[in-house]
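A note on notation is needed here, since sequence and fold are reported together in a single record. The reader may check this reading against the record printed directly beneath this paragraph.
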Amino acid sequence: MKPNTQQLIDLTTQVRRDILRMVHAVNSGHPGGSLGCAEFFVALYQEVMERKETFEMNGTDEDIFFLSNGHISPVFYSVLARSGYFPVSELASFRKINTRLQGHPTTHDHLPGIRMASGSLGQGLSVALGAAQAKKLNGDSRLVYVLLGDGELQEGQNWEALMYAAAKKVDNVIATVDLNGKQIDGSTDEVLHMGSIRAKFEAFGWDVLEIEKGNDIQAVIEGLRLAQSRTANGKPVAILLHTEMGNGVDFMMNTHAWHGKAPNDAQLEAALSQNPETLGDY
C-alpha cells in the first residue's frame, strides 16, 4: 500500500534528521543539496517508481535510478535505507573506515540500491542513457531516472549526452535537474552563467517540464507523474526541479555555504529542533 501524504511528509522530515546527524557525526559531507532534494527522493522511491522489493543490479522489469551528483549521498542513503534496501542502523557508518556508505556512492561494496559510482560530476546522464537503451533492446518497458545538479551542467559531457539522447530518441529516460541556483563556490550565475536551462534542453530536442515547488511533496509527485505520461513519445524527458539548498533548516537556506559543511553541536541541535523525530532515529 502506498503511503498517504502525511506519511510522506513524516518520512521527509525523518530523512532530513538522518542527513543532519550523518554529516555531523563525522564532521564531513554535503547537507545543503541533500536537504533540498529530500522531497524528490521520497516521492520517487515511495510513490512514483515501480521497483522490486529485493535489489537486482540489472534492474530488469523495474524502474531504475542513477544519482549523478553523487555528493548528495546522505539523502540517497537515508531514503534507500528507509525504503528497505539495507538496515537503517547502517546509516551510523556514513563516511567511516570500511563503511559501505562512502562519501560518494560506490559499487565495489555492493550496497543495495547503488548501480553506479558517482561523484566525478557529469557522468550520470550518459550511464542512464546506456541503461535506457539496454531496456529498449531487451524489450523492457520500464523507465530510467537520473538526477543531476544545475552546477553539474557546467561539465561538458552532459551536453554530448543531451545531444545523443534526442538524436537516438531515447524516450524512456527522465532526467531531473536540481535547479537550486547554488554550487560550492557561490551561485551558479556567478560561477558560470548558463542562461536559460530550459531553452538549452529544448534546443537539444528534449521535452521539458518544470516543478516550481520542488520542496512540496505533492507537487513533486504530480510533476513526476506528468513526466511519466510524456515518455514513449520519441523524445527524452527533462524535469527542472526548483528547490532550495538546505531546505528545512532556516540558517542553511538562501546560501551556498552549506554545500559541503557539517553543522557543529549547537547548529545540529538547532537544525534538529526544526525537524522533529517522526519515524525514529537510527
Summary: The CA atoms of residues 24 and 35 lie 14 Å apart. Strands lie at 64-67, 144-149, 173-179, 182-183, 186-187, 207-211, 237-242.
